[in-house]
Amino acid sequence: MIYFITVNYYSTELIKNLSVSIQAGVTSPYELLIINNSPEEVAIHQLAGDNVHVIEAEDNLGFGQGCNLGIRDVWQRDRQGLVWLINPDATLEPGADRHIHQCLLENPNIAILGTKILSPDGNIWFAEGSFNPWLGNLKHSNKATQSAAKLGDHSALTRPVQWVTGCSFIINLRQFKKQPEFDKDYFLYAEDADFCLRYAKQGHSIAVTNEVLVSHKVSSIIGRNQLSMYKNYTFGRLLLIKKHGTILGFLTYFIYCLTIAILYLPVKNDQSRGRLQGIKQFLQLKSKPYQSF
Q: Which CATH number does the domain housing residue 203 bear?
């Protein structure tokens, strides 16, 4: 059984398109769980049906905690299922579910499986994610790189990677002894990388498909508010490096963010103010001690 989970934030029309693509292209038994992060958006309930369910978050929990609601619901019902996290502004390619089953049949040890993703212009938007803890670099590549070869053997259908984008990835629940979940410290951005890096440290296998299975209207939701986008992006990156990187990597990125924010304040005001707000939020964060340093 495949359980699609998407997080709604004023995205009813986009989710309608997603639901249509799932209904048209998926032949496996499935459910679509819509986590409603905008409770006042009552129109989202019009999409509910026999295998489409709306779960109310009662507030805007952000991406990770919204997904946690859905993952918890599935975990309580079916610990052998596949949880497919997918953005509201994404659509599935026909037969994507069959390809995922083939990937996991070829390598059943995969715990987290991302998908290669296409942008509206017909170019590859995501092929793999990498993270350099020494420099703090979090890269989102549109093509496969040789660095992935260091992580393990390639196969005909999948490649090992460090992390995959939350826009589209599958959690193979049978590989987990405890309910997998996103770190609650994150709101939006970098929680997908943290999820993968954290579970990779526990010995779980992370991979991405070699075939394009999803199309994505890039930033059609988060791009609505540049200030909020850069605030959450900056905070998420700093938090990720703090948790998984080195002091050198953290200081490098912190100084970069602060310098860029100050230099571009007169010409890119929303971006700069967003970065500064993200830095401020990070400095005010109170949480448990970090493992890295």
A: 3.90.550.10
Structure tokens belonging to residue 110: 């995969």
What one-character-per-residue DSSP string does 214-256 give? EEE-TTTTGGG-HHHHHHHHHHHHHHHHHHHS-HHHHHHHHHH
CB distance 290 to 243 below 8 Å: yes
Q: Report how many helices (DSSP H) and strands (DSSP E) the chain contains, helices first.
A: 7, 12
| Neighbour tally for 168: CB within 10 Å | 26
Question: Into how many domains does the chain fold?
Answer: 2
pLDDT, one tens digit per residue, over 154-168 is 568 999 999 999 999
DSSP letter string, 70-123 = HHHHHHHH-TTSEEEEE-TTEEEPTTHHHHHHHHHHH-TTEEEEEEEEE-TTSS
The Cα 207–Cα 280 span in angstroms is: 34
Cα distance between residue 253 and residue 127, in whole Å? 24
Give the angle 243-6-122 at the CA atoms, nearest 5°.
90
Confidence of residue 148 (pLDDT cuts 50, 70, 90): very low
The domain in which residue 67 lies consists of: 2-216
If you write DSSP's letter for every residue of 191-224 in order, what string do you get? HHHHHHHHHHHTT-EEEEEEEEEEEE-TTTTGGG
Residue 153 confidence (pLDDT): 52
The answer to whether residue 291 sits within a structural domain is no
Task: Judge whether 142 lies within some domain.
Answer: yes
Query: Is residue 287 predicted with pLDDT exceeding 60?
Result: no
Whose structure tokens read 């290669």? Answer: 116
Domain termination residue (choose one: 186, 216, 246): 216
Q: What is the pTM of this model?
A: 0.90
pLDDT interval class at 266 (50, 70, 90): confident
